[in-house]
Amino acid sequence: MLNEFKKFILKGNVVDLSTGVIIGSAFGGIVTAFTKGIVEPILRLIPSGGENIKGLAWEIGGKFKDDKGNLVPNMIDLNVIVNASINFLITAAVVFFVIIKPLNKLLSMIKKEEAAAAPPADVVLLTEIRDLLKK
Q1: What is the per-residue pLDDT across 64-97, written as a single tens digit (0 to 9) for each?
Q2: Would you give the DSSP letter of residue 54?
Q3: How far is CA 122 from CA 33, 98, 126, 129, in A?
Q4: What is the phi-psi region of residue 64: left when phi exceeds 0, alpha when psi lies from -120 to 50, beta otherwise?
Q5: What is the Cα gyration radius of the chain?
Q6: Quick check: 103 and 15 in contact, CB under 8 A?
Q7: Rounded to whole angstroms, how far apart are CA atoms 76 and 23?
Q8: Would you say 90 and 83 are in contact if contact means Cβ atoms under 8 Å apart?
């Protein structure tokens, strides 16, 4: 049962999925803070083409009331997409270099050990021939 559990845990799809969930939740706050504290101010430095443009956001069609009754501008905001993309790339890099890369190395080492322990195919074939000749 322990070997079956080990095989189940070391399956790529289970490990990849659980790793993505864990790393995504653990680093989400850090990555969000990074993009809001560093990336957004840089994006806001992009020259605007008029008074209704702020960085990569454009005000269109006036203002509307939000849930609290405040008037807020109606905006097309590409900053949100850029920030989400940067969040994704940072999280994916952390998952790849901290979890997936070391796991792949470990799995390749385990496969090499298993291959070294098993006799070569020609030896297995010759052993089977010898056993058949004995019969």
Answers
A1: 888 888 888 888 878 778 777 877 888 788 878 8
A2: E
A3: 59, 40, 6, 10
A4: beta
A5: 28
A6: yes
A7: 30
A8: no
